Each structure stands twice: as C-alpha cells, then as structure tokens.
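Lab intake sheet, docking and co-folding queue.

SAMPLE TYPE: protein with bound small molecule
LIGAND NAME: pyridoxal-5'-phosphate
LIGAND FORMAT: SMILES
REQUESTED OUTPUT: full 3D complex as structure tokens
PRIORITY: normal
SUBMITTED BY: R.K., bench team

The fields below were copied directly from the construct record.
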Amino acid sequence: MAVVLRSEIAALAPYRQGRAAAADAFKLSSNENPFPPLPGVLEAIAASSLNRYPDAGATALRVRLADRIGVSVDEVHVGAGSVAILQQLIQAAAGPGDEVLYAWRSFEAYPGLVAVAGATSVTVPVLSDGRHDLDAMAAAVTDRTRVVIVCTPNNPTSAIVTTAEFEAFMAEVPETVLVLLDEAYAEFVTDAHAVDGFSLLERYPNLVVLRTFSKAYGLAGLRVGYAAGPSYVLDAARSAAIPLSVTEPAQRAALAALDAERSLLDQVAVLVERRDRVRDGLRSAGWDIPEPQGNFVWLATGDDTAEAGMVFERHGIVTRVFAPDGIRISIGEEESVDKLLAAAAEVVATLR
Ligand SMILES: Cc1ncc(COP(=O)(O)O)c(C=O)c1O
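RESULT FIELD (auto-filled):
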C-alpha cells in the first residue's frame, strides 16, 4: 500500500537545477553572477545573531526598499527569493478551477508553482523572436483567470516587454486579475523602451512587481527577493508565507548590497558589455538570437538542442538545455567568452 498523494503533485517533475560544472568548466546554466560578494556583504553576514530568529517582517530592508521605490513600507514584501513570493501570490489568488496565464517558454518554475496551488496553467507561446505575445495573452484571459505572469526580460529568451506593449496589455486585463511582472533581471536591461514596473505601480491597482537580489546583486545563495504592489495583495502573500524564512544574514547582506550601489553598477556594466560582445560574436557566427537584455543569451537550437548542449560541454561550457526548444547560456567569467563562442561556431558548422 502506498501513501495517497495528490495526483497532480505526484506527476510533477522536481525542479531541475542548472548542472554543476567540472573543475575546468564554466557553469553558465543558472544565470548566476560570476563576481565575488559586493563590498561589505561578508562583514554584514558575519554580524548576524545566528542563535536568534530573524525579524519576520524584514523591516529594515523593507524600509530601505520602499524609500528607493517610492512606495510605503506596507507596499513592499520580502521573501526567501522572488520565487517564494511568486508561490505565495499564486497560492493567495488561485486555487482549483482557477487559471494562471503565462508565456511559454518562460521561467521553468512557473508550471510547478501553479500545480502546487491546485490551479491550472494556461500558456501562450512566445513569438519566434522570443518576445511575449501579449495580444494573444490578453485574448487568453477568461472568467477563470486569476493571475497573469509577465516575465521581462524573459527567462530563457532574454527578450523584453516594452512599456507600450505592457500598457496596451494592461488596458485589456480586468482589474480583478492579479498581474505579476517578474523583473528578476531588470538591472541588466539597457533598452530604453523596456517596461519598468516600479514606475507603473500607481497606474495599475492589480500590478505587483517582483525583483531579486539573486542576479545582479550576486546573492543567489542567500535567497532574498522582493515585491512591490498594493498592500492588501502583499498582506495575502505574507499570510501565505512560511514565517521567518528570510534569514538575518540574507536581510543584512541585502542591505549591504544596496549600500554598495557604486560597485554594483560597475559590475553590471561589465556584465552588460560582456553580454553584448557575446551577442555580437554569436550573430557574426550566423546565430539569429533575440536581443538579450538579461544576463544570458538564448540559442533556438530546436531539434538539435541536446546535441548542441553536448558540443558546449565538450568546450567546457555547461549550459541550460531546454530540449527541444533551445539553449540558455548565462554571461559568466570573462575567460568563458572565447570558449562559448568557439562552441557556438562549432554548432553552426556541424549541426545547422
Ligand atoms: C524569471 C525569474 N524569476 C524569478 C527567479 C527566482 O529568483 P530568486 O528566487 O533567486 O529570487 C528566477 C531565477 O532564476 C528567474 O529567472
């Protein structure tokens, strides 16, 4: 006799992490930051009282973020990674019989979060250039839609949603539907047309914007993300959260990272320059890639995806392979760039 589990949970594939790299390979599979911690972060962590529970409300960090964003403290929520906040908000708004709408391919955690809430995923394919098809997404909203997730830059295609596209989309979505704008990679965006969620919070009462300290701020291992939006919606997320899951080291490190703004901007500038160089190298090798605006690039390798992933591995580059769609490659160490481009050229020569 086996324990009776919810069938939709038993059917789920567990979250698949970007593979670890061999000692001589580069791990470009999880959109992580290759730099060591920002100045002050290690000292801030060391000052934590590890025998005490953290501040459950992450007050100091929320005060600081609210000030930066220009909202009240209650309009900011902090979670153990922005993925935790996504889960809380999906659970708060959608249950059995409800629909959660998002683009596909997008962040691979979305389907599982929706299934755990007991709700139904409705997906709209991204366009051939990796962008959200927001017209089709607006048309896919039904009476049962409770949440729409818009991911910009989209993981894994790295393509943005523009302000104009987002405004047109919001005009079509009922105010009773929660719209989550997942901006995990916002700090890497250089396209002036890209939507900036924080600037639109006042206009849309059903909008919550999510960001993270995992990517540009380099704190993926500490798990801290945040959201800004209507306080009653974020109160629901707080109610759905596991208490005390944002640790004191994480809260202190996030504050220290915010203090290190100058260094942060320098690091982001280096990664953006590196990304654009990788983009140019790929395009001159014949790759038609979406304009990358996150810290990663997308190769639509289609049916050749698994084989292409192996070519990259042979060159010492561990990528994220999403067969049969494509390969996502994070922008990592400078030394990885030439290897990455050599592997991409070999894929062109042998598989395409
Ligand atoms: C689009 C997107 N949203 C959210 C997250 C979650 O980030 P974290 O939970 O580390 O804040 C990720 C991580 O890869 C992501 O790609």
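REVIEWER NOTE: The longest helix spans residues 261-284.
SIGN-OFF: pending second check by T.M.
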